[in-house]
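User: My collaborator sent over this chain with a note saying "see what the structure looks like." That's all I know about it. Can you take a look?
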Amino acid sequence: MTKIETVNRRTGEIQDLTVHSSLSAGSGIWFRGGGYTTMGYDAHNALAEADLSGASYKLFHKMCALQNRKDHGLVRVESQTRFAEQVGMSQSSVSRALKQLAEHGFIYPDGRDWRLRADFVFNGGGAAQGQAVRNIPADAPDPYANGSGLTLIDGGAGERPEDQA
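Assistant: Without extra context I'll predict from the sequence alone. Here is the result:
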């Protein structure tokens, strides 16, 4: 069992999440599809705390799935019309979402293509990942600027801490 407590910095509201799993650690985790990306707790929190439209969240996750994993975060855009078709959204929604994601620092332009920040979405590969982080433009907004605010609370093997007293 893992307990996660989050605090909404704007409202002060505390939200608790307890995750229970019936799988043992030896069972492993299986993913559908080829490959995956991962984000740290601070990245998930920054995304959750950002004032983004639903279309921006949807596009961000589509971009995570479409990125070129050999070129750390590169999302090829043949044309904005074609890109909108590819992600199943209207061209105007994609245009607004790209602008919003860039303003918050989750993505940045690379010519006519886009890049997911390599220090935000990790897709594996040590040295190349480090180089991708160093290539983030200095003027790109920092999605971590507001801090984390996440607190992890260790839990027992299926027991709540207050039950262990």
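A starting point for your reply to your collaborator: Confidence is low (pLDDT under 50) at residues 19-28.
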